[in-house]
Write a structure and sequence with these properties.
This protein has helices spanning 2-6, 11-18, 22-32, 37-70, 78-92, 96-103, 119-131, 153-162. The protein has 169 residues and is mainly α. Helix 5 (78-92) crosses helix 6 (96-103). It comes from marine sediment metagenome.
């Protein structure tokens, strides 16, 4: 494209042919004007490497900030370490794996804090379940059928178990 313009084709014609505005063309020409194809590939690989190094630097700086926040706290027992990992996840919005690696605790032992309970939804589910007693369970007041439960009955049963309406078996 730049070679077409350097060969004598008007800039407006080159821009129309390639679907660019003149400002974009001149910006492109300023960046890649005197390069050949191998220089262009080398520039692209250097830009990719630079972006990767910037991400690594940002990750390391974030790890440093998290560790500075934990500085001075004695992380001697597993419970204290798990609490420190949860605090790091909450305060710095980092992943569980990363927080556990920084604190030195097994990720299988640390879980995010549970969301708060919603009593309004729980009461509404109890009311629906008391009106429709057979939702999600097999009915026993008729002859048993050979057909298994519906495709979503396990979800309803799980919801009812979570609301302490039925006991999990």
């Amino acid at each position: 494209m730049i070679k077409e313009q350097e060969a004598g084709m008007p800039t407006a014609e080159v821009c129309r042919r390639h679907g660019l505005s003149p400002a974009s063309f001149y910006k492109f020409k300023a960046k890649y004007g005197g390069m050949n194809v191998s220089d262009n590939h080398r520039l692209k690989s250097l830009e990719d490497e630079n972006a990767k190094l910037k991400r690594l630097l940002a990750d390391t700086m974030l790890d440093n900030v998290v560790l500075k926040d934990l500085l001075g706290k004695e992380l001697t027992t597993p419970n204290v370490r798990r609490a420190a990992a949860r605090r790091a996840m909450r305060d710095h919005d980092i992943s569980q794996r990363r927080a556990c690696r920084l604190v030195g605790v097994d990720p299988k032992t640390v879980r995010r804090d549970q969301p708060p309970d919603n009593p309004e939804v729980r009461e509404e589910m109890k009311a629906i379940a008391s009106k429709r007693r057979a939702v999600g369970t097999q009915r026993h007041d008729h002859e048993p059928q050979e057909v298994g439960p519906g495709p979503f009955s396990w979800r309803v049963s799980d919801l009812l178990c979570n609301c302490d309406l039925v006991h999990a078996s």
